[in-house]
Amino acid sequence: MKSIIVLVIVIALSGCAAVKKDKALESMPYDAPVQKISMTAKRFEFTPEVIQVKQGTHVILEIESLDVTHGFKIEQYGILVTIPEKGRATVEFYAKEPGTYPFQCSHFCGAGHFGMNGKIVVE
Ligand SMILES: [Cu+2]
């Protein structure tokens, strides 16, 4: 109970809590294959903007901002992080189910911000 209260306070103080890992990682088989993917973010695109992974993969995605602060959000995996100006952020998820998982920039970065997105295709 105490830890829940502390967690709530931490989330409240931090404004937007960073979630770097998909909850499904907890139930992932220990021998799931790992795939590391590098991505860059700049006004107003992610490169690559379409990522294809195999079902059952533990995906580690390292994102580098080439310019300003960006964000990275995958709604369906519950992932939300900030990528600092000229910095990096790493997110992880378990590609448990096949499907298309859209992602987008979650930190306002200018005129083209709302079109800064892409998708993960799990096959
Ligand atoms: Cu943006």
From TrEMBL:
Domain (Cytochrome oxidase subunit II copper A binding): residue spans on this chain: 32-123
Record-linked Gene3D superfamilies: Cupredoxins - blue copper proteins (2.60.40.420)
Keyword Phosphoprotein attached: no
Lineage, opening ranks: Bacteria, Pseudomonadati, Planctomycetota, Candidatus Brocadiia, Candidatus Brocadiales
Name listed for the protein in its UniProt record: Heme/copper-type cytochrome/quinol oxidases subunit 2
Parts forming coiled coils: none
UniProt KW keywords: Copper, Metal-binding
Name of a matching Pfam family: Cupredoxin_1
Subcellular location(s) of the protein: Cell envelope
UniProt KW Transport keyword: no
InterPro entries in the cross-refs: CcO_II-like_C (IPR002429), Copper_CuA (IPR001505), Cupredoxin (IPR008972), EfeO_Cupredoxin (IPR028096), NosZ/Cyto_c_oxidase_sub2 (IPR051403)
